[in-house]
Each structure stands twice: as C-alpha cells, then as structure tokens.
Amino acid sequence: MDDTQKIITEEKTSEVSNTSEEQTQADQPAKETPAEEPADAAKSDNPNAKWYVVHTYSGHENKVALTLKQRVESEHLEDKILDVLVPMQEKIEIKSGKKVNVKEKIFPGYILVKMVLDDISWLAVRTTQGVTSFVGMGNKPTPISESEVQTIVKFTQSEAPMYKQVFTVNDTVKIVDGPFADFIGKIDSVDEEKGKVRVLVSIFGRETPVELDFLQIKKI
Is the whole model's pTM more than 0.90, yes or no? Predict the structure, then answer.
C-alpha cells in the first residue's frame, strides 16, 4: 500500500469514528433543567401557612394590621405572612337621635394573621408596634382551623346589619318620644335585630310592658 492510499484509508476510518460518536451523543436524552415555579405558587398554596390569633392593644387593631402589612412588603415577607384580618361587622348605632351605620370589631383587641410560623415571621409579628402577644398554649402560638376563619368571615359579611348593643335587660331608661315620653321604665327584653326593646313602665301603679324603638329611649 502506497502512502496516498494509506492516508485515504486513515481519513475514512476517522470519519466513521466521528460519525459513530455523534450518533451516540444524539441518542442520549438531553439533561432536563429544573422548571421554575411561579413566583406566587408558594404564597398562594402553602400547606404550612396557618391562621393565628394575635393580641393587640385595644383600639389599635386597624393600625397594627396596617403596620404589619407595610412591614411584610418592605421586608419582603410575602411568602411567610400571607394575610392579616381584622374581623368587623356592620352595625347600626344611635347617635344624636339618628341611626348611623358603623363598623364594629367582632373581637376587640385581636387580629388574625395567616402565616408560616418560623423565627423570622414570629419576630416580625411580635415586634410590630401595638402587638402584645400571640394566643396559644404557654409560649407557643396555637393555630386555629380554616373552618373557624371561614365562619368568622361569613359572619362579617352578614347582609342585614344588626343594632349595636347599647341596651341590656334591667337597664333603667327614660322614654324620649311617643305617647309615653318622659316616663321612666326598666328594660325587660332587647331585640337587637329589629332595634326594639320592651320596657316595663309604671302606669297607674301597675307595670305595663311597652314596645319601643331604640330611638325612643335613652339610658339614665
């Protein structure tokens, strides 16, 4: 075999070898790169997030909730503290002889926080101004069930507002309107839903029950 034939044979052998290597690499499955999870996936569906009851200074519930929400945003804790709730219900209150719709806190001095409890989230809530403690057994915060929270939320969304409780049984009141104006009596029963009371009024030496609207009486 002359030198020219030898060179041609070596080149063909090299081409066959290279083709075989390329085919082998092509047959191998490509390595999979891990798929990126949606940014909000952990936040919206985190099985470790639970609702906790947080005690605050009375009258500071809304301020505490707002401060905590701002802190969550500024410290990027959205994946640890998911929601803050101040349970409130619409009520009817008598002010200056008129009916006024007001928002009344269902649990004065408490807010609800949905969070993944760890050292960071605990510290963020606990050190928020106005927070006094978590509610729980001993020093450990105790979560409440999702069903309890849903019941509270449903209660806050009641369509027919009730009257704010300002009168109770055995309260002494003065009637300020109607045929019994200026009479003094004692409340026998209260219907908060309708905003009415039954007052026992002494008429001719006998106690007579009179049904009145909240607007028709005042405490003395």
Answer: no
